[in-house]
Amino acid sequence: MSHRAPKAPAANRLVVLGGDGVRAAGSVWLVGAGPGDPELLTLKAFKVLATADVVVHDGLVSDEILDLAPVSARRISVAKRKSRHSYAQDEINRMLTAFALEGLTVIRLKGGDPFIFGRGGEELEACREAGVACYVVPGVTAALASAASAGAPLTHRGAAQAVTFVTGHAATGETPDLDWASLAKPNHTVVIYMGVSTAAAIATRLMDAGRAASTPALIVEKASRADERRVVTDLAGLAEAAAQVSGPALLIVGEAMALAQAGTAQFVQSIEARGLERGVGS
């Protein structure tokens, strides 16, 4: 029988597991699940996930990673898509603290790193306000995975002396109010999360602020996954290239992106597969 639990009832949006007697204090772990490839999960994340009573996870976390949790652990998806959230952030915050106050170990499994545009800070604050112990396990964020697979360093002694991570949209859904003059400086890599829909506006802002239209740019869709796709372009062509993207993607602008390789990902075989070929453990 499957261990997947049904979705929480829509009536009150909170599912509290009751029990008899007084239980020991629970805890919340904000765990970075990495960009998608299960082999990029950290060892600590792997160990912590094995202790879960409840796993509250993002929609992009793969089943391969979710299956590392105990069979008995309850899974709750709090998937967020553009203009379509299964739970509001306040509801997620209340859910995490309510389960922990019931004495449960709650794993909040977040794509990438909890503190890189993952709203982990808000969840940490909610736990502190509720008096719930909260711990953070960092994860490999999409920027690192995207640059690594494309062979394009985020920093480079001759081409990128700084790197900045920014969001591609504001809370209102519009282009964010950023320090465009600073981002337009040469030899500076700019990584844009959630920027596919605002790529045209971002490119315009950067060029208006003085960034050369010929500055190399890279778009990586579904970083580190088997169906990863990369598009190499320049700042002038960023909007047109972004229009080709349908899945979650990252935009990277900067001189060091001249080293990026386009196309679909050609992954090195997994460590496990290479070990079997070499007869490791035989």
UniProtKB/TrEMBL annotation:
Record GO terms (molecular function): uroporphyrin-III C-methyltransferase activity
Pfam family, one: TP_methylase
Domain of life per record: Bacteria
Family: Belongs to the precorrin methyltransferase family.
Alphabetized NCBIfam families for the sequence: cobA_cysG_Cterm, PRK06136.1
PANTHER family assigned: S-ADENOSYL-L-METHIONINE-DEPENDENT UROPORPHYRINOGEN III METHYLTRANSFERASE, CHLOROPLASTIC, SIROHEME SYNTHASE-RELATED
Name the record gives this protein: uroporphyrinogen-III C-methyltransferase
Protein's organism: Phenylobacterium glaciei
Gene field: cobA
